[in-house]
């Protein structure tokens, strides 16, 4: 019977509402939800083809529908029952924990999991097993934004809402190709520009992307020089008297120290380091500082960097110095890459976090979470973050890995190390909706999970808005919801690790809608009194409309904008200027590796293409992988469009067609992140077979956020 179900798009952090049309067990259509405040009915090319990705025959063929076990690596996996699969997983984890301790296991999760999924995994690792080795591909996405917010504003809370785009007089877009990565939000920027032609837009990016096309001022900075640019802007603000000393005195600390640092960042030095004209530095600074309201939008260009936290903090410094925060149309607004990187942070689903924005390093926070969960303690030893976790597995320290809803054998940097880790680990569980990802090849045990259109739960988008995700069709085959798989494993494991005690996972597995709600209710209780307090929300209220946090008990709606009162969640209520230093890239280009390689998204593809790659129409925009280079670099290397070239970094090499592009500056190159081993083969410096552009990228990471520098590797490019 035909029916319609409201849910949320699973692709990006805009978090658009969708209406799914279904008939029996078939998803037949999708359209934008006109009532959803993130998109008011709009969808981009990816969102509007969701139903095709769900119904394509190739999608069904690619699905993992039953538990599978591989008796020996390299063999084809064979189907097993859930009972056998769980038994093997429990037996292996118990043996590993007893022989090597709880830190010998690790969980690697995903910003595409729902909040409920994340919550149960986090409790399973930190509450039951006693390890903080829980990290996620959100480490590759938003951890620098988290570190930047905490360092300056005191909490991981994006202060803005999408409506601020309509109120801004200046929009500073830094390290974000919003037009492709967050298309529906970009339509809103275009609308704001059309409605208010005096709106000034600045775009700062080494690539002249489609987003730069809308800008009044484009700053083509050299890769990795953002902190120098942002410090230079503060230098000019000080010189011109554009800082707001009254706001600084009333609401901040640490400005004098920062002043000393930015004094060195003269316009000459900034122009030389960043590769921009001095007059453009002055123009950008004037637009930012003198507009009535300035909104910054930023994403992976700032985050995926060995200076990621410093870049984020240096940008927030500008907002604090000019009082461009806490009012409509103003503030530093990080755009979330994945659909639920926010929800994962909320439940503490990372190696250094605990539930409800609590810090692992804080003994009081650990005690609060232990009390909430009913366990004696939460371990204090920091867990391994993404890069550290795979390095530890490659070194033999982590012996059992549980990977859920993500494909590190394609998406992690420095693929040679990741693949060594997956080969060396004694037991690899991959919990997935699709059987075709590169990581599945390494699994000893494959556990089939539900996916979009089948799942129930919640996600949180970039503007702190919690939306329901609802099932339009029944779970196919033997698939289970991600949280339910983790809870079932937890039930069986706790019988071995803490026999006779009450379960830590009291969620109904028979009625999974009720079970998911019970998980969410427990998460909700954990937020009471915290900055992200959602005790005023319920599944029933979220069924009516998506809501923004915080929304405390008794409140009828969430908070659209934070810090309007000038009070920040720090000990003294004041924001802190971050006195961060400019540091060069982890790997600067040099004579042997003379090109800067940048990686990123295409408009019509998503991650490793397990979903978007199943329909032909999404290849209409870009049909095949290529390395884009400046036309003059092609001439210099005697290359023609379409020639095969070998792109080599210190870690590996891939062969790919070259394409001349006006978007890419001289001595730079760009390769989209989406194509995996079947399209973009390569090898490591020792001859190991590798996959995709991450054969080349570096795992060097930011010391504060531990986010790797996926946006830059030094490479050489020669004709293949
Ligand atoms: Fe989905 Fe993002 Fe497109 Fe919205 S903008 S439809 S959330 S991919």
What can you see in these coordinates?
With 720 residues, this protein is an alpha/beta fold. The chain has four domains: 2-55, Phosphorylase Kinase, domain 1; 68-141 and 344-529, Rossmann fold (3-Layer(aba) Sandwich), CATH 3.40.50.740; 143-335, Dimethylsulfoxide Reductase, domain 2, CATH 3.40.228; 595-719, Barwin-like endoglucanases (Beta Barrel). Helix content is 32%, strand content 18%. The strands form seven sheets. Strands 5-4-18-17-16-6-7 form a seven-stranded mixed sheet, with helices on both faces. The protein has a six-stranded mixed beta barrel with strand order 23-27-24-26-25-30. Strand 28 (681-684) and strand 29 (689-691) form a beta hairpin. Helix 4 packs parallel to helix 21 (482-497) and helix 9 (226-240) runs antiparallel to helix 12 (267-274). The protein starts with a strand and ends with a strand. 61% of the residues are buried. The site of iron/sulfur cluster (SF4) has 14 residues, from helix 8.
């Amino acid at each position: 019977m035909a029916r319609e179900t409201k849910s949320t798009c699973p692709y990006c952090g805009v978090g658009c509402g969708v209406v799914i049309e279904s008939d029996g067990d078939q998803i037949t259509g999708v359209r934008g939800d006109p009532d959803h405040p993130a998109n008011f009915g709009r969808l981009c090319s990816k969102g509007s083809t969701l139903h095709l990705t769900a119904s394509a025959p190739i999608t069904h063929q690619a699905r993992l529908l039953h538990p599978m076990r591989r008796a020996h690596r390299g063999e084809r996996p064979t189907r097993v029952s859930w009972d056998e699969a769980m038994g093997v997983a429990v037996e292996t984890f118990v043996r590993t924990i007893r022989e090597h301790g709880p830190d010998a296991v690790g969980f690697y999760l995903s910003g595409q999991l729902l909040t409920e999924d994340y919550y149960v995994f986090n409790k399973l690792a930190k509450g039951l097993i006693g390890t903080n080795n829980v990290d996620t591909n959100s480490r590759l996405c938003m951890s620098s934004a988290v570190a930047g917010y905490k360092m300056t504003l005191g909490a991981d809370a994006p202060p803005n809402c999408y409506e601020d785009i309509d109120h801004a007089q200046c929009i500073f877009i830094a390290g974000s190709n919003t037009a492709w990565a967050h298309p529906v939000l970009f339509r809103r920027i275009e609308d704001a520009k059309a409605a208010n032609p005096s709106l000034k837009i600045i775009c700062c990016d080494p690539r002249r992307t489609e987003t730069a096309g809308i800008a009044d001022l484009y700053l083509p900075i050299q890769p990795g020089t953002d902190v120098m640019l942002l410090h230079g802007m503060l230098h000019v603000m000080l010189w011109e008297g554009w800082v707001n000393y009254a706001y600084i005195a009333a609401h901040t600390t640490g400005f004098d120290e920062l002043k000393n640092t930015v004094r060195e960042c003269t316009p000459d030095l900034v122009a030389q380091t960043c590769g921009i004209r001095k007059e453009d530095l002055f123009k950008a600074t004037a637009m930012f500082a003198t507009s009535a309201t300035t909104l910054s939008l930023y994403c992976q260009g700032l985050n995926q960097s060995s200076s990621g936290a410093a870049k984020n903090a240096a940008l927030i410094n500008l907002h604090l110095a000019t009082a461009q925060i806490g009012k409509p149309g103003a503030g530093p607004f990080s755009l979330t890459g994945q659909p639920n990187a926010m929800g994962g942070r909320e439940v503490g689903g990372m190696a250094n976090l605990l539930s409800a924005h609590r810090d692992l390093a804080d003994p009081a926070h650990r005690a609060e979470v232990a009390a909430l969960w009913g366990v004696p303690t939460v371990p204090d030893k920091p867990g391994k973050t993404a890069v550290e976790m795979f390095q530890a597995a490659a070194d033999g320290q982590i012996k059992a890995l549980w990977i859920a809803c993500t494909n590190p054998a394609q998406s992690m940097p420095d693929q040679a190390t990741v693949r060594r880790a997956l080969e060396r680990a004694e037991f690899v569980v991959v919990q997935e909706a699709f059987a075709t990802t590169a990581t599945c090849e390494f699994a000893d045990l494959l556990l089939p999970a539900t996916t979009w259109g089948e799942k129930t739960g919640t996600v949180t988008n970039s503007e702190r808005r919690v939306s329901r995700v609802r099932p339009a069709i029944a779970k196919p085959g033997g698939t289970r919801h991600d949280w339910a798989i983790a809870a079932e494993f937890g039930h069986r494991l706790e019988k071995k690790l803490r026999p006779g005690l009450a379960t830590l996972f009291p969620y109904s597995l028979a009625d999974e809608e009720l079970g998911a709600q019970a998980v969410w209710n427990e998460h909700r209780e954990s937020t009471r009194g915290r900055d992200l307090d959602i005790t005023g929300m319920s599944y029933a209220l979220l069924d009516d409309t998506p809501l923004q946090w915080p929304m405390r008990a008794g409140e009828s709606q969430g908070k659209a904008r934070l810090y309007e009162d000038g009070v920040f969640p720090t000990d003294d209520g004041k924001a802190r200027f971050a006195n961060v230093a400019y540091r060069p890239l982890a790997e600067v280009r040099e004579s042997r590796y003379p090109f800067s390689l940048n990686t990123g998204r295409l408009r019509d593809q998503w991650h490793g293409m397990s979903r978007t790659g199943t329909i032909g129409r999404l290849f209409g925009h870009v049909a095949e992988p290529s390395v884009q280079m400046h036309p003059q670099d092609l001439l210099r290397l005697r290359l023609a469009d379409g020639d095969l070239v070998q792109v080599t970094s210190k870690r590996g090499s891939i062969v790919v067609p070259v394409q001349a592009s006006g978007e890419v500056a001289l001595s730079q190159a760009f390769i989209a992140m989406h194509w995996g081993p079947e399209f973009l083969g390569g090898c490591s410096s020792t001859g190991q077979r590798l996959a995709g552009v991450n054969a080349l990228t570096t795992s060097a990471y930011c010391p504060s956020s531990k986010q790797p520098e996926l946006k830059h590797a030094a490479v050489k490019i020669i004709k293949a």
